[in-house]
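thought: user wants a sequence for this fold. calling inverse folding tool.
action: design(structure=
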């Protein structure tokens, strides 16, 4: 009975809609200069690192980095990455790591976080915490229009060290 209920639930909105009520198709976005943002993960603020680890391992994630004694673990499931952080920040964060590939390996060529910052500022995007000048590792923090926090956390030096 469950598959039938699911089919009815999924089909009901289709049966009730008409062409005159349908939303117009979306227009394609205007192409912009490509900026390589780096490896992506969602950083979750957790109450109990052990319980969260067990939960995500039950979903098929495996620990690929981190140290429970320092309050964090990075887990992966295929190309999906999540970070579990206990006591480090409040709320969840969308995280990009410029200079890291999908396996957390350093890249020879990438868009430095300071260049990402310049591009965002040129578009009028407010920066919450700016990246430090120089060539070493640094981070950049901003928030989207709904207050979702986005972190660009670069752990490797600027390409070419300049």
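)
observation: tool returned 162 residues.
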């Amino acid at each position: 009975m469950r598959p039938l209920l699911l089919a009815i639930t999924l089909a009901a909105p289709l049966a009730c809609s008409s062409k005159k009520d349908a939303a117009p198709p979306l227009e394609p976005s205007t192409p912009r200069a490509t900026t390589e943002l780096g490896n992506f993960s969602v950083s979750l603020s957790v109450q109990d690192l052990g319980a969260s680890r067990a939960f995500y391992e039950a979903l098929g994630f495996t620990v690929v980095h981190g140290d429970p004694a320092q309050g964090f673990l990075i887990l992966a499931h295929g190309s999906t990455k999540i970070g579990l952080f206990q006591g480090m920040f409040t709320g969840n964060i969308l995280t990009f790591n410029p200079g890291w590939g999908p396996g957390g390996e350093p890249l020879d060529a990438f868009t430095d976080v300071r260049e990402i910052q310049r591009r965002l500022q040129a578009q009028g995007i407010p920066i919450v915490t700016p990246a430090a000048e120089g060539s070493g590792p640094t981070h950049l923090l901003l928030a989207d229009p709904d207050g979702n926090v986005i972190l660009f956390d670069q752990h490797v030096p600027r390409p070419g060290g300049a």
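thought: summarizing for user.
answer: Here is the designed sequence. Strands lie at 39-46, 62-67, 72-77, 80-86, 93-97, 138-143, 149-154.
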